[in-house]
Amino acid sequence: MSLYPPHRAPGTALASRPARKARPVSRAHERGMTLVELLVAMAVGLLIVLVAISGLVAGQRGAATVDTASQLRDDARFATDMIQRLVMQAGFEDIPFASAPYKSSAAQYKHANPGSSGSNIDIKTLQPNVYGFNNAVPNATDPLHSAAARKKDTPGYGSDVLVLQYQTARSDPGLDASAPDGSMITCNGLATQDAQDTATSRGTRLVSILHVAESEGELALMCTARNKNGQFETVPLVKGVENFQVLYGVDNVTAGTAPAGHVDSVPDSYLRADQLTVTGDLNATYTNWRRVRSLRIGLVLRGPAGSAQEKAEIKYHPLGQASYENNNDPGSEFTPHDNRLRQIATLSVQLRNCQNQGYQPSSGDAPCDVVLPK
């Protein structure tokens, strides 16, 4: 058997073969993405990125809204708890005064008032324990008796001022000069312990004044109380309160009119602070205030700018119902125009203590009766 191919003899050279021609490459295999296809791909990618970012932003805004709503509820709960405690204290008298009412006349009340020196207090000019101003800002030097009207379109417009007064309770009722037991607090949350705050007359009282003002660029519910030096000092109590409304549940009071007859200690109507004023008659005005039996209080708290999901115009009724809305009471209806989240807090509190400050009419022995002192 031959080892050589049949077409070539042994010893002969290998014949060269003609080179193969290269196949032409198809143009379809050489072509990349066109500009249109690239733009379409980029647009789809950007759309996916935008959807993802939008979802992330929406999630973050939703979480921020939830956090703000939770904070507003906590602030509202704290504010209502504090206000309720302060209102319940209003009119409290230490045992030497609560156990010594005077039923005869304003003159006897003035000279026989218990205290270290007889006190010489006139019931006709002794400011009631519950007092207030409608749509006002308290006077910086005399917040107890004076306030300025709020101007329209200014921060806090429509907000009221509430003044509450009460005595301290002695730690030892048998000692006239004993220190307070610390059970009574002012609106700044301090329990008074100083002996100088022990009531020595019916006019010796702690005071808590609640109102709305700006603090560090944000509206807040403010507390004005006396400091250790006896001077009035204002501190923020609850941040974000932009509307503070107070109505007074009164017993047998006609707006703007001197009181007549007796009372039964049950409120029969709600009036504004200015409606309890009898023009030119401080005695009648103060008697109307002593006929207050309950308070209805409303607050509107707001979160930071952008805390709401969208900007919407919403009408709020701080006092809880549209029936309390009154054109003569700015703030009883409240319509903001921004994107802040808001929370309404409304409470009604029945006064625990008599507000007649120890003065009892000579006719009748009804509990907590109040008549016009003459």
Written account of the structure:
This protein has one domain (58-350). The protein contains five helices and eleven strands. The protein has a five-stranded antiparallel beta sheet with strand order 1-4-5-6-7, covered by helices on one side. A four-stranded antiparallel beta sheet has the order 9-8-10-11, covered by helices on one side. The chain has a two-stranded antiparallel sheet with strand order 2-3. By secondary structure, it is of the alpha+beta class. The relative contact order is 0.15. Strand 2 and strand 3 (147-149) form a beta hairpin. The longest helix is centred in the first third of the chain and has 55 residues, at 35-89. The radius of gyration is 39 Å and the shape is elongated. It has helices at 27-30, 35-89, 95-98, 106-112, 282-289, and strands at residues 130-133, 136-138, 147-149, 161-166, 206-215, 218-226, 232-239, 241-250, 269-271, 292-302, 342-350.
Number of helices: 5
N-to-C SSE string, H for helix and E for strand: HHHHEEEEEEEEEHEE
Helix content: 10-25%
Quantity of strands, as a count: 11
Structural class: alpha+beta
Query: How would you describe the shape?
Result: elongated
Rg is 39 Å
Instruction: List the strand order in the largest sheet.
Output: 1-4-5-6-7
Gap from first CA to last CA:
155 Å
Look at the structure and give the mean pLDDT: 86
Could you give a short account of the major beta sheet? 5 strands, antiparallel
Total count of domains? 1
State the low-pLDDT regions, or none: none
Tell me the strand percentage band.
Answer: 15-25%
